[in-house]
Amino acid sequence: MKFPLGSSSLNWMYGRGRQSAAIRNLETHNPTSTSHPESDSDLLHTADSYSSIMAIPSLSFSRPTFAKLSPHPYLLTNLSPQSPSTKPSRTNGRAPHEARPVQIHTSSLSHAHGSALVRSGNTTVVCGVRAEILPVTNIPQYRPRSSLQPSTTASDEAADRAELKAYDLLVPNIELATGCAPQFLPGVPPSTLAQTLSTRVYSLLHSCGVVDPKSLRIWHDPSAEAKKTTGEGDASMQDDNDDDESEAEPPQLMAYWVLYIDLLFVSFDGNPFDAAWTAVMAALRDTKLPEARWDPDREMAICSRTRKNPLDVSRGGLPVACTAAVFQEKEYAEAGGLAGENRHWVLLDPDRLEESLCRETVTMVVDCGGVGGETRIRSIEKQGGTVIGRELMRGFAGVAEKRWREVRDAMQ
User: Where do the TM regions start and end (predicted)?
Assistant: First the structure.
């Protein structure tokens, strides 16, 4: 059977034939051979022909292929351009201190008490808040409260935070959906990253005091119910009720609202904590709980179908997370751990490729909504590396303030 030869096969064969002929011609002019060239020009002409034929053609790859084969040189080439007039940029075209624009959509889920969808670049996360009633009789080691007055002193606020944490009234859970990134496979247990993100969100919820515990309490006030049942009676009955006010039972706390905060990453392209925390804050600000009262006859909480109260998150302000990663010119094995002899770039809001190449990250949570626009640093987390010190941390605080304003405008 004969196969037709394409142009590539003919070129390869023709080139090989020329190569063999040139080699034979060069061998005839070899000084160690018995025959000698007629002139030096013939020898030079033959050598030039041989070198031109044996030259290996240059290979060129597309940008995605280059990024997969050599990710570190690929990012380094973009951050350190050869021309001084060209500004350094990342693989996605952003400047080192430029974050991806954030988009926030609230009330995305119809069967949740509060929800939000947050998209930052190609990272997309959905957050839903579902509230359930927990009677105090189902809480182990419950310590009764007997006051309807709000918390005013610092000790009262500390007790409120301890109450939220002791009774597990805030339960965040993060899931990385199959297909949101190549490394997340189906049929596997929750990844370490998902568990770490859930723990970080849980700790920040309690340390910042985002949720006011009084909006989660369900009271039973016998005196208020007695006034409702009595109504506008005759004067004598009203006087009897006034005399019995001193002997009325004090209000009792009978149940709590427990908030289950579930997050699902639909698309994962780096910096998951900032997106997750933004989704949590947006969903909590969107949460509305039904008006509930305790029915002593049924021994259960009764919820209104029409009246709903927004969740009080004003006391905790609006903390916003801002994450950056440090990219070094030399890889860690080559640099020997010496950061002083190694150029570096601080990349704000890193994507998935940049996170895989950076071994040092810092996350700062700030709240610029204080009195007079005062900035409060609520949390700082740093992992790995020795590049970011005090000076860089001060400069990073200004970058976090700018990010806070961007997220605030997106929520409004």
Answer: none
* Measured CA distances, 18 to 22, 30, 41, 48, 303 (Å): 6, 18, 20, 13, 91
CB 283, CB 116: distance < 8 Å: yes
State the angle between helix axes of 7-28 and 40-54 in degrees (0 to 180), rounded to the nearest 10.
150
- Better pLDDT: 107 or 332: 107
Contacts of 142 (CB under 8 A, 6+ apart): 136, 167
* CB proximity list for 83: less than 8 A, separation 6 or greater: none
DSSP count for the chain of H helices, then E strands: 12, 12
Q: Determine the Cα–Cα distance for residues 8 and 57; give it in Å rounded to an integer.
A: 14
Greatest mean pLDDT among 147-161, 327-341, 371-385 lies in 371-385
Band the pLDDT of 146: cuts 50, 70, 90: low
Distance CA 321, CA 217 (A): 29
Kindly tell me the burial class for residue 384, based on how many C-beta atoms sit within 10 Å of its own C-beta (0-12, 13-18, 19 or more). middle
Domain boundaries, the chain: 15-28+40-54, 102-141+155-226+250-315, 321-411
Task: Dig out the tokens for 21 from the structure.
Answer: 């002929």
- For residue 100, pLDDT over 50 is answered with yes
The fold adopted by the segment(s) 102-141+155-226+250-315 is: Ribosomal Protein S5; domain 2 (3.30.230)
Longest CA span, the chain:
141
Q: What does residue 181 show for φ and ψ, rounded to 5 degrees?
A: -155, 155
Q: Three-state DSSP class for 323? A: strand
Q: What is the pLDDT of residue 148?
A: 55
pLDDT digits (tens, 9 = 90+) for 250-278: 788 999 999 999 999 999 999 999 999 99
What is the reported pLDDT for 378?
94
SS3 39: coil
Tell which residue, 92, 98, 106, has the closest CA to residue 278.
106
Q: Are the C-beta atoms of 129 and 306 separated by less than 8 Å?
A: no
Residue type (1 letter), 330: K
Rounded-to-integer distance, Cα 347 and Cα 386, Å: 15
